[in-house]
Specification:
The protein has 437 residues and is mainly α. 57% of the residues lie in helices and 5% in strands. Residues 133-347 form the Tyr recombinase domain.
Length: 437
């Protein structure tokens, strides 16, 4: 009897695999935009669903939707959101419309849609509409402030939880959603230190074109004589409930003083997605970091991490090996100089210009004062006459300037005449020489 366990997968199993390849965030984004699209269809009295229309009608109605949809407050969606909307509608049609093999992004299949949407985005940018603000990172000083603040006290359950979250944000360059999906098996304690394993990322789900090997991020050793990320993460892992059932890395902190005294710091219950997604901003606010007019979220930890890698001069290939970026463009998008860096750079230029200008002025004053004292000192009456003469000369010079000013077209025309005259003179001189000989 054969010991092989080959089997024939059912159609439902195959369909589940095909559906499961799409990231959860992508599915959530698509569902959100389809609901917005259906509401817009109802508002403009379109009775038939989009997927029931032919190709030409779909091209028209998608164009109308992108140009006419607004938020509940009547504001324009950001340009980035509208591009996401087109991608969501494209996925929706490919999933629900039988025989649909088109791509709404293809300007050859949908030239009118491409032209209209391209024009819309350019017009919005010209009018400064739909601006999207990228995630902001923290400065080095703010990071130090957080690590020394009592809110992140590793000797309390909640403080240790927040501190571990912060270490994984900064050293693990974690994306916002990666915290929500982080499993305890991904944080491994080794003799060399803590290792963070990323099996799947936003840009690498491990499919046919993906990487089948985990992204490994080894945390650095703790500074000698100081409790650092390794010892604090080990402490957090040691306080997890024995024989825990939850595989989530982030667990709810116990709030009972009696239980905490007995060493029960955490419950066998994962933190809610909502709590995890707001964790980074909540830490910043609790620690007194100014978040006003700044876009602070869990993704700020990733931006901060890459900014710090860039600022200390880490080679690009090493930085990308930590961040997981596949391209230089994606990596350097995070490593762009901040407004403060730009302001400092331009300040250096301004200081140089002002310093040179001031030096030149001082030098000119020195030259003027060093002139021989054999000039007669004019009276106040002479000064008045001199001022009148200077004014008359200034007016005369101004008239002379505008009288001799020519447009570029006139200059080119005059130059053409001059070249023509020069050529005629040269020809005449050549004929005279020929006659003499």
């Amino acid at each position: 009897m054969s010991k092989r366990s080959n089997y024939l997968p059912s159609n439902d199993q195959l369909a589940a695999l095909a559906k499961g390849r799409v990231p959860k965030n992508t599915i959530k984004n698509s569902e959100g935009w389809i609901n917005i699209m259906k509401q817009w269809w109802s508002d403009v009295n379109y009775n038939e669903p989009l997927e029931s229309q032919d190709k030409e009608t779909i091209e028209l109605q998608v164009s109308q939707f992108l140009c006419g949809v607004t938020t509940k407050q009547g504001q324009s969606y950001s340009r980035t959101s509208l591009k996401n909307a087109l991608s969501a509608i494209n996925r929706h049609l490919q999933n629900v419309k039988p025989g649909w093999r088109y791509n709404l992004h293809d300007k050859n299949d949908f030239p009118d849609l491409y032209a209209r949407f391209d024009g819309l985005l350019k017009d919005m940018k010209k009018k400064r509409l739909g601006e999207s603000k990228s995630t902001d990172g923290l400065t080095t000083e703010e990071i130090r402030h957080l690590l020394n603040y009592e809110i992140l006290d590793p000797n309390t359950p909640l403080g240790l939880l927040k501190r571990v979250f912060f270490w994984i944000s900064i050293l693990g360059a974690a994306r916002g959603g990666e915290h929500v999906n982080l499993h305890v098996s991904q944080v491994v304690d080794t003799s060399d230190g803590i290792i963070l394993k990323k099996a799947q990322q936003k840009n690498d789900q491990g499919g046919i074109e993906g990487n089948q090997v985990d992204l490994i991020i080894p945390f650095p050793s703790d500074p000698e004589g100081t409790a650092g990320p390794n010892s604090e993460i080990r402490k957090y892992l040691s306080f997890r409930p024995k024989n825990f059932k939850s595989s989530s890395f982030y667990l709810s902190a116990c709030r009972s003083p009696d239980a905490i005294v007995k060493g029960k710091w955490y419950l066998d219950k994962p933190l809610t997605d909502r709590t995890i997604r707001s964790m980074f901003k909540m830490i910043c606010i609790e620690c007194g970091i100014n978040v006003e007019s700044r876009n602070i979220s869990n993704h700020s930890g990733r931006r901060t991490s890459i900014m710090e890698l860039f600022s200390v001069g880490v080679p690009e290939n090493t930085g990308r090996a930590i961040s997981g970026h596949k391209s230089s463009g994606g990596y350097y998008a995070y490593a762009k100089p901040t407004d403060e860096h730009k302001r400092e750079a331009l300040g250096n230029v301004l200081n140089k210009l002002i310093t040179n200008t001031s030096s030149n002025g001082i030098m000119q004053d020195s030259i003027n004062h060093s002139e021989p004292d054999n000039h007669e000192i004019s009276s106040s009456e002479d000064d008045g006459n001199s001022s009148d003469m200077d004014l008359n000369n200034s007016v005369q010079n101004e008239h002379e300037f505008y009288g001799t000013f020519h447009t570029a077209k006139e200059v080119l025309k005059n130059n053409s005449h001059k070249r023509s005259s020069t050529t005629d003179e040269n020809k005449q001189m050549h004929r005279q020489k020929k006659n003499v000989t």
